[in-house]
Design brief:
Blueprint: E1 4-6, H1 14-26, E2 33-35, H2 45-51
Parallel strand pairs: 1-2
Helix pairs in contact: 1-2
Length: 62
């Protein structure tokens, strides 16, 4: 069970946001916190924020 996942300054870019948003949408039951600090996400962070709107989403902190 993953409760917290840190992807701090790992070179993650906006290209990966769509894939990550899809993956989060497939399994939202365990991940509670996702740290993407210091990555160049740009406006694509909105894709990830939209995942938080899912009523089944357990992600508390992005």
């Amino acid at each position: 069970v993953i409760v917290f996942y840190r992807m701090y300054d790992c070179g993650f870019t906006k290209k990966g946001c769509a894939a990550l948003a899809l993956a989060l949408g497939l399994n939202l039951s365990h991940l509670r916190e996702l740290n993407l600090s210091e990555n160049k996400l740009g406006d694509s962070v909105n894709l990830l924020s939209a995942v938080l709107e899912d009523p089944h989403c357990k992600l508390e902190k992005l």
